[in-house]
Amino acid sequence: MSDSGVVAAMVGRARELVAIDRALHAAAAGHGGLLLVSGEAGIGKSRLLAECARRARGMGMAVLSGRAVPHTGPFRAVAEALVPVAPPALAADPRLLVYRSALGQLLPGWPVDAVADRRLVDPVVLLGEAVLELLGVVATPVGAVVILDDLHWADPDTTALLGYLGGRLAAARVLLLGAARDEVGGTRVADLRGHGNARILPLPRLTAAEIATLARERRVGLSADAVDAIVRACDGLPLLAEELAEAMEGAADETGVAVTASPTLAELTRQRLDTLPAAAREVLNLAAVLGDLDWQVLAAVGSWDEHELAPALRAAVNAALLVSDPAAAGGLRWRHALTRDAVLTQLLPPEQAALAHRAAAALDRGAVDIDRLPEAAELYAQCGRITDAAALLLRAARAAADAGALGTAEETLRRALRLSSAVDHALVVELVRVLGTTGRIDEASALGATILGVVDGERRVNLCLHLARTAVAAERWGEAGRFLNPVAGLGDPRVDALRAHVALGQQPTRCRPGHRAGSRCRRGRRTRRPTGSRVRGPGDRRSRLAARRPGRLR
After folding, report:
1. Cβ(425)–Cβ(451) under 8 Å?
2. Which residues make Cβ contacts (< 8 Å) with residue 146, sequence separation at least 6?
C-alpha cells in the first residue's frame, strides 16, 4: 500500500495473486476457509492483504479488517474487524439472539447476560458459532472476507478461534485471510499451520529483476547504476528496495552514489528523524515505546493538547515515518512495523525506561480501558517496576478469564509468574482457577497443593474453593471434601454450600434423593417401597422366571 493508502501495483506476486483470486471466488461460491500469508518482516504481506481487499470489494463482497497488537486484550484483531459492522442495535436481530451474550464478550455495547459454567461449554466453540452466525448476517449476497494482519501478535484465544472457524467455513461464503511473520510469534504461526483446514501462502523474497522493476516504479528516472545499487543493497526485500529508492529523491544526478554504502532501514529512519523538530521527535519516541498512534491516547499519556500534538504528527507524516490511514485507530499508523523498531533502537536504555514509566503510569491511572492493562504491565516491566507489572497482569488475567478467554488468562498469569522473583500466591490461586475451568484437573490440584499450607485468610478460602470445584467437576468427591476441610469451620456460606453438594455426591448413586423407589442401594439394602407402588405384573423379569420354575419364587 502506498503512503496515501492507495494500493500500488504488485510486483513479482503473480502466483500469490492467483491463489488469492481462487480463494475469493471459492468463498463467493460457498466454499470458504482460512488462508494464512506468511513471511519475514518487509516481505510484502500487508501489501498483498490490501490488494485482496481491493479485489474483494470489486466482487461485491463485504470486507472486514483488523490487526493484532502486542500486549492487548484477547480477540483484539477479530473485535476490530467486527465492530464497524456490528453496532449494538444488531443484537436484536432474531438470528443472533441466542448468541448475543457470547458476542457481548467481544463487542462493546452488546448485552451480556449470565454466562453458563465454562466447564460445561467450550468458550471457543460457543464464540466460534456466534461469530460464524454474525458473519452470515453482515455478509453481502456475494459473501465476506475477514482480513487480519500481524497475527504473530495474536493472543492464544484468537488463534484457537480462527482455527475453529477455519474448520467451519467450508460451506460458508466467508474467507478468513490472515498474515503473520515467520520469525516472530512462532508458536502462533505454528498453531495456525497446525489446523488442517488452514492453507498457507508463503511469500519468498523477490528476484533481482523484480527488485529492479519495483525500484523503477517507486522512483521514476533512476539510473541503471542506482538501480543496481538498490538491488545489491536490499537482497530481495521489497520494503528496503522502496525505502532506498525514495531516499534518493532530490539527488543531483541519481547516480546511485547515495546508496552504495548499503544503508539499513534503521539508518534511513534515523536520517528522517534528524529532519524533525524536537517536539515531533519527542512525540514519536513516546509513540514507539507505547506502541500506539491513537492521538487521543498519545495526548493523555504525554499531557499534550491537540494544538501541540497535531503539528508534531504532521511533521512525522511529511517525513514518511507515519502514514495517514483512515482504517487505523486515530487515523495514523507507522509506515511499517520496522519503522517503529528503528525509532526504538535509537533510544538509549535509560531513555526507554523513563518513557516506559511515564506511559505505564498514565495507563494505570485509567487513561484507557481495561484492554490496555497488559500493555501497561509490559511498560512497567520495561522500567523495572515488576510488582506493579504483576499486579496489572493479574487484573488482566481475571478480566480475560471472566470473558471466557482462558488461553489468554493462562498465558498472562504465567508471564506474571516468570516476572516475579518470588512466588506470588495471588497469581497461583488465579492460575488454579483457570486450569480447573479448562478441565486440567490434575495440573490444577498439583499446583494448588504447593501453596495450600502457606496461604491464609480470604486467599486460602478462594484456593480451597477453586480446588474443590475442580474436583467436583471430575466427581472426585473425596478429594473435594479434603480440599474443603481446612476452611470448613469458618462459616463461609460458599464453603458450606459446596460441602453440602460434596456430601450429596458421596452418597451411593441409587440412594440419592430422586432415585427410583424399590431399587437396590450399593450397600445391598432395598429402599422401602411406598404405599400404592406398582406390583410386578406378568411382564416383569422375575415374574417370567417364576412362571417357568413354579415354587421357586418366594
Report:
1. yes
2. 64, 65, 66, 78, 81, 135, 174, 175, 176, 177
* Lookup: cell for 413: 498469569
Cα 301 to Cα 288: distance, rounded to the nearest angstrom: 13
Residue 278, number of CB atoms within 10 A of its CB: 8
436 phi and psi angles, rounded to 5 deg:
-65, -40
What confidence tens digit (pLDDT) does each residue in 355-391 have?
999 888 888 776 556 778 888 899 999 999 999 999 9
Per-residue pLDDT reduced to its tens digit, 441-473: 899 999 998 999 899 999 999 999 999 999 998
- Residue 124 exposure: Cα atoms within 13 Å on the Cβ side: 18
Beta bridge partners of 202: 38
CA distance 425 to 437: 19
Task: DSSP for 77-102, please give it.
Answer: HHHHHHGGG--GGGGG-GGGGGGHHH
Cell of 122: 467450550
The phi and psi torsions of 29 (rounded to 5 degrees) equal -90, 5
Q: Considering the entire predicted model, what is its pTM?
A: 0.77
* Measured distance between the N- and C-terminal CA atoms of the chain, rounded to whole angstroms: 91
Residue 321, classified by CB atoms within 10 Å of its CB into exposed (0-12), middle (13-18) or buried (19+), is: buried
Encode burial over 1-37: b for 16+ CB neighbours within 10 A, e otherwise: beeeeebbebbbbeebeeebeebbebbbeeebbbbbb
Q: For helices 406-419 and 373-382, what crossing angle results, to 10°? A: 20
Pick the range with the lowest mean pLDDT from 233-242, 259-268, 349-358.
259-268
Per-residue pLDDT tens digits for 142-167: 999 999 999 999 999 999 999 999 98
C-alpha cell at 345: 533502537
Strand order in the sheet with 33-39: 62-67, 144-149, 174-181, 33-39, 198-202
CA–CA distance, 77 with 129 (Å, rounded to integer): 17
As a whole number of angstroms, the distance between CA 417 and CA 519 comes to 53
Q: Which 3-state string (H, E, C) describes 255-291? A: CCHHHCCCCCHHHHHHHHHHCCCHHHHHHHHHHHHHC
Per-residue pLDDT reduced to its tens digit, 475-495: 899 999 999 999 998 999 999
Q: Tell me the HSE value of 159 on the side-chain side, using a 13 A CA sphere.
A: 23
What secondary structure letter does DSSP report for 335?
S
- Say how far apart CA 14 and CA 48 lie, in whole Å: 11
Spatial CA neighbour of 94 closest among 141, 137, 140: 137
Strand, coil or helix: 143: strand
Rounded Cα–Cα distance for residues 390 and 422 (Å):
11
Q: Contact at 8 Å (CB) between 67 and 77?
A: yes
- Burial of residue 141 (number of CB atoms within 10 Å: 0-12, 13-18, 19+): exposed
Q: Residue 120 is which amino acid?
A: L
